[in-house]
């Protein structure tokens, strides 16, 4: 990637240096008023000043001497960057006009900021030439923009911007794709990660910035609208200068995010106010401020031993070097590109972490499956059940057989649901009921099952209620007549589904404070597995027993 | 006459244990009680003297192992009846008389009870600690730190390497049933660790005594001299 960038850079440099026309420019001089002779090559403009002065809405002339040192056989062209509407004279010959100069009864038709003219071969000989402009600047009269001149082969004048634009559009396209991709990623990912959104926004801002910067090559902008584009570029740069450090601070877990960002914002605002109207300068300062902030965050990240910190620092340094050696226009964009590449790299790191998390969640799922299967083969359950079973078979074989049936029933259901992530609620209830039958034989306590509002179409992770039931059996003392009642209630509201599970019994005293134990961990892990963080689990003693509430939120 | 406490939270199993215990001891039972939780069991023990405790290690989700220390410090023998067979080795190091894994039958439970009635050691003991209760706090003493044990009626006095003495609630006879084979009865009142024995001193008039490595001299019972001499060589 780095190599590609270098080639890219060299290409850009070449495309802008290819000019075979060599010339020298002399200071442009101005004169208010109107005289056709002022276009003449031999007119003595010694009295004219280099200051335009107050021209108001009137007509003024400018003369820019140019000394052609080397010309070419290919037709020569003239590229002018100037405000106002003007007629262009080359050695006294009218080459063309840009807009319509103010006339007595007609207002000015604004010219474009950028204009190109062909110079006839007969006037393209070596030596000094005079470029005279007959100008009116009815709008934005206070802005005294100097006249910018470029001489080159006419085809090159038209082609060079296309080459630059093609590269920049290439880059813009990449950012557009990235922006769209990350937007979709954000919208469709279950866990809304702000860093993804921020990255998408940065990419789209950067796309807009590139488009805004180079739109000048394919849309002719009347000088009256010249500043709109610059204003847009300024604010885009401003936003990027805020968001890039924000992104880094999130990715690198910067501790004092707020302080840093507020400070950054204040600095950028003051830069804006201090350099008001100096558009290019403002953008450069913005990008420097952004760079320094990013460096602070990255250095902090390196101190914190964050992953990828060092590589991003390298990227930032590289962007500084590029920025230093290249013209502002390209430098800014290439350094931005480098920074965004760094961000992309961070993203790849992040994606790796997410992938790892996914792997471990798969692992968790299989662990939970195992946990479920273990429920029925763990020694406490199995050996105690077998002991009771032995006793029943020895003492009253008939009931012993019933006991065996019940146990087989519980094993059947367990076997059936062992690999499921969600099971119909009815199946869960059947599991609970067979378990109660088994436990009745073991503990010789009467267990009663009640339910209300059950929606048969609902699904739940397997053995959630079963686990609560086990806890209820273990930690309860029957009230009167050796009776413990369990009640499962389902409730649907606009926002959530709720299961409440009540145990009506006396709670056993516990010698040590319990915080749930394995059972609760199983339930919570199962809920997370199926519902992410959209659930709530509360389990606590109530007068007359125990109450557990599971809420599952729709969103 | 045996006084027996069963701590077991499953009614059916508790009744099974009770029935089998009665079958084994027949008329020799003075009292038999069932508690379905540790708390109730502890209260019962505090108020009633018992000879045998039959304890389940997992009661209502609580780990009975935590209180095993204080149980084995008591004056009674403890027999574990548990589903957690993997805990058996640990339980023996604390000095339980036997570990009966669930599911069990009459034969297995009776085998455990016979250990009580058979004096002396029955199997190779793996006991590593002696739990001693002092002012309500149970402390574990490593068996390798015990020099010898002196019988004192229903109690025993433990003489330790560091010169200290501790009182144990079990009688010396009961401890003898639990302790590893390196402990030898040399006298009706003395049980010593053979590792600590230096040599036998014979005094005129067939009076034997044992010189310990720390210089202490303990009497040897006339009837035990031969057996001891054989073991010391």
Automatic annotation (TrEMBL), chain A:
This is Sensor histidine kinase YesM. Residues 1-23 form the signal peptide. One of its GO terms (molecular function) is phosphorelay sensor kinase activity. Pfam families: His_kinase (PF06580). It comes from the Bacteria. GO terms for cellular component: membrane. Keywords: Kinase, Membrane, Signal, Transferase, Transmembrane, Transmembrane helix. The keyword Signal applies. Residues 369-443 form the Signal transduction histidine kinase internal region domain. The lineage of its organism: Bacteria, Pseudomonadati, Bacteroidota, Sphingobacteriia, Sphingobacteriales. The chain crosses the membrane at residues 162-184, 196-220, 226-247, 259-275, 281-303, 310-326, 332-349. It comes from Pedobacter cryoconitis. The keyword Nucleus does not apply.
From TrEMBL, chain B:
Residues 3-117 form the Response regulatory domain. Transmembrane segments: none annotated. GO terms for molecular function: DNA binding; phosphorelay response regulator activity. This is LytTR family two component transcriptional regulator. Pfam families: LytTR, Response_reg. Keywords: Phosphoprotein. The keyword Nucleus does not apply. PANTHER family: STAGE 0 SPORULATION PROTEIN A HOMOLOG, TRANSCRIPTIONAL REGULATOR-RELATED. It comes from Pedobacter cryoconitis. Residues 130-233 form the HTH LytTR-type domain. The keyword Metal-binding does not apply. The modification 4-aspartylphosphate is found at residue 56.
């Amino acid at each position: 990637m780095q190599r590609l960038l270098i080639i890219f850079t060299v290409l850009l440099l070449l495309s802008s240096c290819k000019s075979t026309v060599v010339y020298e420019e002399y200071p442009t001089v101005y004169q208010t008023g109107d005289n056709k002779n002022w276009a003449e090559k031999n007119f003595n403009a010694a009295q004219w000043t280099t200051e335009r002065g107050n021209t108001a809405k009137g007509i003024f002339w400018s003369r820019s001497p140019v000394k052609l040192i080397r010309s070419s056989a290919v037709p020569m062209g003239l590229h002018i960057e100037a405000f106002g509407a003007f007629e262009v004279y080359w050695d006294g010959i009218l080459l063309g006009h840009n807009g319509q100069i103010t006339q007595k009864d007609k207002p000015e038709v604004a010219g474009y900021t950028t204009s190109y003219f062909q110079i006839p071969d007969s006037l393209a000989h070596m030596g000094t030439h005079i470029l005279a402009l007959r100008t009116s600047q009815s709008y934005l009269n206070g802005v005294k923009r100097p006249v910018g001149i470029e001489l080159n082969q006419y085809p090159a004048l038209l082609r060079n911007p296309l080459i630059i634009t093609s590269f920049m559009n290439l880059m813009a396209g990449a950012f557009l794709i990235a922006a769209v991709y990350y937007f979709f990623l954000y919208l469709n990912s279950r866990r809304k990660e702000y860093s993804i959104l921020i990255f998408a926004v940065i990419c789209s801002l950067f796309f807009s910035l590139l488009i805004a910067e180079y739109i000048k090559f394919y849309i002719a902008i009347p000088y009256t609208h010249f500043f709109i584009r610059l204003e847009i570029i300024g604010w885009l740069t401003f936003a990027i200068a805020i968001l890039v450090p924000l992104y880094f601070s999130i990715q690198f877990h910067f501790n004092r995010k707020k302080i840093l960002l507020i400070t950054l914002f204040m600095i950028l605002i003051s830069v804006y106010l201090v350099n008001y109207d100096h558009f290019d300068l403002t953008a450069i300062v913005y990008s420097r401020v952004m760079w320094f902030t990013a460096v602070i965050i990255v250095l902090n990240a390196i101190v914190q031993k964050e992953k990828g910190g060092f590589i991003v620092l390298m990227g930032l340094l590289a962007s500084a070097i590029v920025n230093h050696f290249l013209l502002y226009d390209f430098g800014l964009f290439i350094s931005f590109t480098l920074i965004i590449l760094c961000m992309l790299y961070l993203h790849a790191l992040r994606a790796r972490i997410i992938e790892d998390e996914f792997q471990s969640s798969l692992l968790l799922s299989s662990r939970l499956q195992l946990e479920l299967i273990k429920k029925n083969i763990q020694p406490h359950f199995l050996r105690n059940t077998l002991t009771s079973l032995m006793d029943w078979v020895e003492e009253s074989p008939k009931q012993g057989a019933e006991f065996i049936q019940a146990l087989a029933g519980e094993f059947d259901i367990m076997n059936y649901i062992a690999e499921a992530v969600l099971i119909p609620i009815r199946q869960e209830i059947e599991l609970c009921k067979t378990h109660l039958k088994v436990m009745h034989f073991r503990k010789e306590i009467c267990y009663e099952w009640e339910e209300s509002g059950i929606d048969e179409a609902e699904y739940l992770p397997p053995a959630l209620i079963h686990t609560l039931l086990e806890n209820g059996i273990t930690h309860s003392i029957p009230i009167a007549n050796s009776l413990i009642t369990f009640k499962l209630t389902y409730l649907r509201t606009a926002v959530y589904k709720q299961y409440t599970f009540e145990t009506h019994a006396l709670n056993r005293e516990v010698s040590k404070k319990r915080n749930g134990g394995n059972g609760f961990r199983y339930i919570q892990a199962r809920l997370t597995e199926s519902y992410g963080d959209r659930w709530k689990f509360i389990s606590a003693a109530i007068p007359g027993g125990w109450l557990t509430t599971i809420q599952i939120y729709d969103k | 006459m045996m006084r027996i406490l069963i701590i077991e939270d499953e009614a059916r199993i508790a009744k099974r244990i009770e029935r089998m215990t009665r079958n084994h001891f027949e008329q020799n039972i003075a009292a038999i009680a069932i508690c379905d939780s540790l708390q109730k069991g502890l209260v019962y023990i505090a108020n009633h003297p018992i000879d045998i405790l039959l304890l389940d290690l997992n009661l209502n989700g609580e780990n009975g192992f935590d209180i095993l220390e204080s149980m084995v410090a008591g004056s009674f023998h403890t027999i574990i009846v548990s589903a957690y067979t993997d805990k058996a080795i640990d339980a023996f190091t604390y000095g339980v008389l036997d570990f009966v894994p669930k599911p069990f039958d009459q034969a297995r439970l009776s085998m455990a009870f016979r250990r009580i009635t058979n004096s002396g050691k029955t199997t190779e003991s793996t006991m590593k600690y002696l739990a001693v209760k002092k002012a309500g706090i149970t402390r574990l003493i490593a068996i390798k730190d015990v020099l010898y044990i002196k019988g004192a009626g229903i109690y025993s006095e433990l003489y330790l390497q560091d010169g200290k003495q501790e009182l144990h609630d079990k009688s010396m006879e009961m401890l003898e049933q639990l302790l590893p084979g390196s402990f030898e009865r040399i006298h009706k009142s003395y049980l010593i660790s053979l590792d600590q024995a230096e040599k036998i001193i014979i005094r005129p008039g067939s009076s034997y005594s044992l010189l310990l490595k720390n210089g202490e001299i303990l009497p040897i019972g006339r009837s035990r001299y031969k057996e001891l001499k054989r073991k010391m060589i």
